[in-house]
Amino acid sequence: MLWLLFLTLPGLGSSVPVTPGPGPGRELVGIVGGCDVSARRYPWQVSLRFYNSKRRQWVHQCGGSLIHPQWVLTAAHCMEPENMTPSKAGVQVGQLRLYDHRKLTMVKQVIRHPKFNSSQGAKGGADIALLRLEAPVTLSADVNLVLLPPASLRVPERKMCWVTGWGNINYKSPLPPPYHLQEVEVPIVGKEVCNQRYQKVEKNPRPIKEDMLCAGSEGRDSCQGDSGGPLVCSWNCTWVQVGVVSWGHQCGLRDFPGVYARVTSYMSWISQHVRLSPGS
Q: Which of 127, 211, 221, 226 is labelled catalytic?
C-alpha cells in the first residue's frame, strides 16, 4: 500500500526556503548551476541504470523518483526502445554518489503512458513511465518516498522549486567524479511565456502542451542525464513532486527553461497502476 499524502491545495503559493543558497565553500557545479546535495535531503531520488557490455557495468542513464516501495516514476523516453525488456534496467536507491556501491534493484515491469509516441519523443507529450521493481525496497532515512500532488494542484508562475540529478553540468559537459548528486533551485515559467520562447526554435506553433510544465532560468536548469528525475516544490516544509524532467533546448540558456512532464496531468493514470491511499 502506498503511503502518500494527498494535499488539498488550490496552489502552492510562495516558495518556502528550506536550503540556504550557496555560500562560501559551496562550489557552483551542475546539474546546471547547482550544488552538491547534503545527505538525506532527497531520499526518493533514484538512478536508472542500463548494462553497458563494453564497460561491463551498469551505467547511469536517467533519474527517477520513488513513489512507492515497489514503484519508480520516470520519463517514458528513458525507457526506449519500446520493446526493451525490463530485465535490462535496474535502479539504485539511497545513494548520493554514483557507483559508490553497486547493489541494484532490478526492474520487473515497465509501463509507459499509452499516449507516448516514440517517433515524436519527449516533445510529443505523455513523457511519463512507471517502473515496478522486482521487490519492495526497505524505507529508511536514506530511502523514502516523495509525495504526489492532487490533480487539482496548480503551480503558480515564479514559484521557486528544486530539481535534482546526476546529469551534465552544461550542454555536453558531464558531471565529473565523484559524481555527486546535484540540486538547483529553479523558477516556474508560465506556459504562455514558455510557448513564446520555444516557438523560436520549434516548428510547432504550440510546443508546450497542456501536460507540460516549464521551469528554469539562465544558468539554472536540468540537463542531459537528468531526464526522468523529479522537480519538487515545498509547501509547509513538505516536498511535493510536480514535474518529471523531460526535454529542453540545450541547458541553462536565458530564454529556454527546462520542460517537464506535469505530474498533476497524470495522477489518474498513476493511480490506475499504483495503489494510492490518502494519509501519510
A: 127
Write out the DSSP string of 66-123: EEETTEEEE-GGGG-STT--GGGEEEEES-SBTTS---PEEEEEEEE-TT--TTTGGG
- Provide the mean pLDDT of the chain: 86
Out of 227, 234, 246, 265, the active site residue is 227
Whether residue 7 contacts residue 126, with contact meaning beta carbons closer than 8 Å, is answered with no
246 catalytic per annotation: no
Assess whether pLDDT exceeds 60 at residue 280.
Answer: no
CA distance readout (Å), 111 to 76, 180, 224: 8, 29, 22
Please name each of the domains of the chain with its CATH number.
45-144+268-277 (2.40.10.10)
Catalytic annotation present for 127: yes
pTM over 0.90: no
Q: Are 266 and 249 in contact (CB under 8 A)?
A: no
Query: Of these residues, 77, 221, 246, 265, which one is catalytic?
Result: 77
Instruction: Report d(CA 190, CA 251) in Å as an integer.
Output: 18
End-to-end CA distance of the chain: 11
For this structure, is 77 an active site residue?
A: yes
Q: With 50 as the cut, is the pLDDT of residue 28 above it?
A: no
SS3 label, residue 178: coil
- Name residue, grid cell 520516470: 74
